[in-house]
Amino acid sequence: MSDTWIFGYGSLLWRPGFSFLECMPGWLDGWERRFWQGSPDHRGTPERPGRVVTLAPGERVWGLAFRLDATTQRQTLQQLDAREVAGYQRLTAAIRGADRSVDAVAWVATSDNPDWLGPAAVDAMARQVIGARGASGTNVDYVLSLAEVLVASNVRDPHVEALAARVRELTA
Q1: What is the value of pTM for the model shown?
Q2: How deeply is 82 buried, as exposed, middle or buried, from its count of CB atoms within 10 A (0-12, 13-18, 19+)?
């Protein structure tokens, strides 16, 4: 059986929630992280959806690739399918690390799903984030946790940085 890798670019960066054999920092070319997907469950409700990240066409997105244990990979994939149920689909792509590339599964939401929110002004997104809370906690915690893990990893992401800065301003 070949290795199965998972690529995390959002909450999997600070809360994978599954066991893995190896973790490799890496990037995916041709994509960028955007707060364009609605979360009617984990970080919001159907009435007040939160904003979570998905991938949109762009230059490059940094993340972590996790190599799964063959004995638990089926269970882990099912668990992640359930976690990413609101509008996400599996995408397999080549993740490039410092010394190698691996094919990994990532979950991506596209504009044709019912929870899609799409682009908006930073201020409008921040105000939506502040008012959203779901089963996994507040949307503010999601945004700020993502910003913090990127800073700690020396990764610049202007989209995340701008939203986190505005959320901080509005909640100060």
Answers
A1: 0.94
A2: exposed
Place of tokens 């945004």: 143
State the total domains in the chain: 1
Per residue in 11-25, pLDDT (tens digit) is 999 999 999 999 999
Contact 18, 76 (CB under 8 A): yes
Q: Could you tell me the CATH number of the domain that includes residue 34? A: 3.10.490.10
- The beta strands (E) that lie in the chain are given as 5-8, 22-39, 50-67, 88-96, 101-109, 133-134, 137-138
Which residues span the domain enclosing 28?
5-171
Q: For the segment 129-158, what is each residue's pLDDT rounded down to a tens digit?
A: 999 999 999 999 999 999 999 999 999 999
| 56 bridge partner residues | 32
Catalytic pick among 84, 148, 161, 169: 84
Residue 169 among the catalytic residues: no
| Sequence-ordered alpha helix ranges (H) in 107-171 | 122-130, 139-152, 158-171
